[in-house]
Write a structure and sequence with these properties.
Structural class: alpha/beta
Shape: globular
Helix content: 25-40%
Number of strands: 19
CATH superfamily of the largest domain: tm_1862 like domain
Strand order of the largest sheet: 17-14-15-16-19-18
Bound molecules: iron/sulfur cluster
Radius of gyration: 22 Å
């Protein structure tokens, strides 16, 4: 059985696809790069925007066009949220509501000879490696306990569930044999550990205690936090960022969503612009350099020119090196989907998005210029590009024998506004 895997969306989905791959390979399947070569295809979907749902439908249709005999299984967040839509598609053979690798594999390889000789279901609870072997994802939790008004991911993934810290450390040790960088992955990693202590008792495990343990017990890799909320970066974590000697890399992706307190309130966010600003300034002050990114949503219902100006001002004030700007799109089942009044027109959303993206690009350019001449620690991602500790993509020139996934050190140079590293 040959299987082609398609993944949309965030790192958590990419991690989940790796669990599909590992489970399918354990049952004897071979993973192939093209739908034309495959007997079956798994599309692991995302539902963060309308565009994400559209992309899923488009990829399903084009895979089937490329290979009319393909058995297509749709899984992931959009499949959980919009199950009926996919069931109705003639191209789709099966729908798995969510990310269970056993359910996905059962649709494709239920008659595995491996299964016949084992009473327990096959499949590793722990991942051994990701493909390609560059940076690896280390999933620490799933789900989220918040209720942001715009978020369909929470609806698709449910409440926060933390993985056992011993399992995470074991998995990190296995992954460290193939990867020199591991990225913490989850839907809301700042909630790590809340569900591991009984209610009412002090929280024994937190993201910071887990990070300390990983830094201690898994020596040969560097770690990256991935997306984390400003109010959930505690002092202990800032100390680790400052004093781990680069093993916890100086890069944070911190959802901001809006710089207007009234929009943040309508979004049901729990923090103010001041909370966000003060935390980011404190972190930037403590680190010699920092890759800092954020998600910003424009055109949330009721967002006025003044609200947007406050968002723009906050972006200007903080040392962002990149932004992910999303125009608001109403997601079925969310609180914001019912906010019919004060909808912002598509033209205004487009204008605000362009404005912020331009601003973010200029800030990113300025940051890259500042890094020229300084050393960087780069993971080789392919023969042309690598990723620095502060999340800059750099062009690699020189030694063609550099191996995928190697960690290399080089000063950064600039050529035609591109960062390059000679190896
Ligand atoms: S914090 Fe808000 S946006 Fe983030 S996953 Fe939870 S509900 Fe969604």
């Amino acid at each position: 059985m040959k299987v082609h895997l398609i993944t949309h969306g965030c790192k958590a989905n990419q991690y989940d696809t790796e669990t599909f791959r590992q489970e399918l390979e354990a049952r004897g399947a071979q993973i192939v790069d093209e739908p034309e070569e495959a007997d079956a295809c798994v599309v692991n979907t995302c539902t963060v925007t309308h565009q994400a749902d559209r992309t899923a439908r488009k990829d399903i249709r084009s895979a089937k066009r490329a290979n009319p005999d393909l058995q297509i299984v749709v899984a992931g967040c959009s499949a959980a949220q919009r199950t009926e839509d996919y069931v109705q598609m003639p191209e789709v053979a099966d729908v798995v509501e969510g990310h269970d690798q056993i359910e996905v594999a059962d649709q494709i390889a239920p008659e595995s000879p491996y299964l016949d000789t084992h009473e327990e279901p096959v499949g590793a609870e722990l991942l051994d490696e990701h493909k390609p072997r560059t940076r690896g994802w280390l999933k620490i939790q799933d789900g989220c306990d918040r209720n942001c008004a715009f978020c369909a991911t929470k609806l698709a993934r449910g409440d926060s569930r933390s993985r056992d810290p011993d399992d995470i450390v074991d998995e990190a040790k296995r992954l460290s044999r193939s990867h020199c960088e591991l990225v913490f992955t989850g839907i809301h990693i700042g909630h790590y550990g809340r569900d591991l202590s009984p209610r009412g008792e002090p929280q024994e495990h937190t993201l910071s205690t887990l990070t300390e343990r990983l830094l201690d017990e898994v020596p040969d890799v560097r770690f990256r936090l991935g997306s984390i909320e400003a109010t959930e970066i505690d002092d202990r974590m800032i100390n680790l960022l400052e004093h781990s000697g680069g093993r916890l890399v100086p890069h944070l992706h911190v959802p901001m969503q809006s710089g207007s307190n009234s929009v943040l309130r309508d979004m049901r966010r729990w923090h103010t612009r001041e909370d966000y600003r003060d935390r980011m300034r404190e972190i930037a002050r403590r680190l010699p350099y920092l890759g800092l990114g954020a998600d910003v949503m424009v055109g949330f219902p009721g967002e006025t020119e003044e609200d947007f100006a406050q968002t723009r001002e906050l972006v200007e004030q903080l040392p962002f090196t990149y932004l992910h700007v999303f125009p608001f799109s109403a997601r079925e089942g969310t609180a914001a989907a019912d906010m019919e009044e004060d909808r912002v027109s598509p033209e205004i959303k487009g204008k605000r998005s362009r404005d912020l993206r331009e601003l973010a690009m200029k800030k990113g350019e300025r940051y890259r210029e500042r890094r020229v001449g300084q050393a960087a620690e780069i993971v080789v991602e392919n023969e042309d590009y690598g990723m620095t500790e502060d999340y800059l993509r750099v062009e690699l020139t020189g030694d063609p024998d550099q191996r995928l996934g190697d960690l290399m050190y080089a000063p950064l140079e600039m050529e035609d506004s591109d960062l390059i590293a000679r190896i």
